[in-house]
């Protein structure tokens, strides 16, 4: 996950602190588990933002009593949700809303199980000097952003798909010392919405309160915006492609396991790549070997009408005879990629040109797959927002599986319309002899109601 006030990156590190102020907190009462509640509902949230030029997708959440709105960067690559807050603030960016202000009775104590879970991901040496000591945290991101703060409990006002409104008291971070890029510009968000699989994640806490099942999904529209949902009521189980969740060497990332990489229906001949899915990363990152193989294949396949050009937006860009207005103007010059996952039977993720290219304000087409080795990601391969656009991606922690399906993400769904996402779905357009599947000719994956 990247804090994304700076350029994108994916890797979260939790660092342990043992700081100091005495505090008390009231644990929220635990209700029945969602597994035990056949009426456990779902919650759908509208998303805002885009891959370019904003570089993130975010959601509006109502937090506190009385509830106040905050914009949160949607991040499946980290667990902790946090807001910049006035505790007082040592270092905060300018944010869209007034800083969250905690009260002493909202502080989570160091001895709380959620505090132990927060710190236990990297070390078992979590110690509390006093039962009244507060739960402190520090998070650091690969884009050099960070947040230092204290864990608090407060209410979240959430409207469910069954039309009821719930206000559970959930634990999140109150960040009073941030390094999040420019301190003079207004940040696009007030904090981060952590949706990883750890018990401190908001998703896990919803499950603990019996509100929704431990399932989260997102649908990021190429046009900007989209939707996010908690719970499984909206999941098209029968039509999506599913793979078992793999145990990633990179902590709590959601991983569909290792994949072979194909370009234009032909293997790029690189060893299987360990892949993670991270909505907190604007772009996709390949490690050095697959990245170089892809760049070589791309350059060797392009028509002579495209010329490589320098563009400040991304490292590798091309210009045409005239400036491009959208990816649709240039996609015919490029071929699709496919990730073929060993974890699932015929589990293919097609990456058409519009899922790895952007067109910049200068009218150039740029590769939105970057060399992760250059920012310290080593062998980690991150599928970021650009590649997940116009797909519903589902992280089902109940069944231990990850799914995806092509979808019109600019339509906000409800339980009666969700199955409309099945229309127009097709397999990657490659020779069936390679993948052993039946092809379909799909000129358009779906038609939006905005067209």
Could you please describe the fold and organization of this structure?
- This protein is mainly beta and 451 residues long.
- The protein has two domains: 41-228, Beta Barrel (Cathepsin D, subunit A, domain 1); 239-412, Cathepsin D, subunit A, domain 1.
- Helices cover 8% and strands 32% of the residues.
- The protein contains five helices and 27 strands.
- It has helices spanning 113-120, 202-208, 288-301, 385-388, 432-435, and strands spanning 12-15, 43-50, 56-63, 68-75, 82-84, 136-141, 146-159, 165-166, 169-179, 191-194, 215-220, 226-230, 241-244, 254-263, 266-267, 273-277, 284-286, 307-309, 317-319, 337-341, 347-351, 357-359, 365-367, 369-371, 381-383, 391-396, 401-406.
- The protein is globular.
- Residues 1-36 and 415-451 have low confidence and may be disordered.
Number of helices: 5
> Are there runs of 5+ residues with pLDDT below 50, and where?
1-36, 415-451
Rg, rounded, reads 22 Å
As a percent range, the share of helical residues equals: under 10%
InterPro entries: Aspartic_peptidase_A1 (IPR001461), Aspartic_peptidase_AS (IPR001969), Nucellin (IPR033823), PEPTIDASE_A1 (IPR033121), Peptidase_aspartic_dom_sf (IPR021109), TAXi_C (IPR032799), TAXi_N (IPR032861)
Family: Belongs to the peptidase A1 family.
Organism: Triticum aestivum
Domain Peptidase A1: 57-405
